[in-house]
Amino acid sequence: TKWAVSAAVFAVLVMRRDLAAAWCVLGSILASFLNKALKYVINEQRPPSARKADPGMPSSHANSLAFLGVYTALALARESPPPLGPGSVAAAAILALSLFLTWLRVRLGYHTVPQVAVGYGLGAATAATWHQLGVQHALESLATRPEQRMALYGCTALAVVLFAARNVMAWVKERHVCGGTDEAGLSGAEAALKLKAA
């Protein structure tokens, strides 16, 4: 899910190349970093059946899915008058997909229901706040000030690079711990158990 969603977001950013897309992507990455920080502060373990050893509360996948789903739904609904304009139907479909993919995290044993509920709630609240801030204040100001526009594009590009680097490093570490043996000669499963116990 993480790689597919990241690729889709990056594709939209590259295809649209506008303020609204940059604002949304920057907000989603900031929400992701906030969620990751909370995950390590709360430090709640995942379910015993989970194949990952990092903390599970709140779910990062649920957070990202909620942010992107809610933000996109709000943007589409704003462009298409209710109750059943094309934007409203697309918004409902995107929200349904984000909820389904979030439910899969529980179904596959990666998270508990409270972990995805908190992650989704945090992502949805952050998306609504970020969307409102953009619509009411930031986007109009950015459209009239080229230096601020360039600052937004620069911040978004930096955030994308940092986000990608963090996820690639986490993926490499996960493959190293779970795929073979670690430096101490432990198998992937033994190392994961050792990490969970620590």
Automatic annotation (TrEMBL):
GO BP terms in the entry: lipid biosynthetic process; protein N-linked glycosylation
Domain of life: Eukaryota
SMART domains reported in the protein's UniProt record: acidPPc
Transmembrane segments: 20-38, 59-77, 89-106, 113-130, 150-169
UniProt-listed Gene3D superfamilies: Phosphatidic acid phosphatase type 2/haloperoxidase
Single GO MF descriptor: dolichyldiphosphatase activity
CC per GO annotation: endoplasmic reticulum membrane
Keyword terms of this UniProt record: Hydrolase, Membrane, Transmembrane, Transmembrane helix
InterPro entries: PAP2/HPO, PAP2/HPO_sf
Phosphatidic acid phosphatase type 2/haloperoxidase domain sequence ranges: 21-131
PANTHER family assigned: LIPID PHOSPHATE PHOSPHATASE EPSILON 1, CHLOROPLASTIC (PTHR11247:SF40), PALMITOYL-PROTEIN THIOESTERASE/DOLICHYLDIPHOSPHATASE 1 (PTHR11247)
Listed name of the protein: Phosphatidic acid phosphatase type 2/haloperoxidase domain-containing protein
Organism name: Volvox carteri f. nagariensis
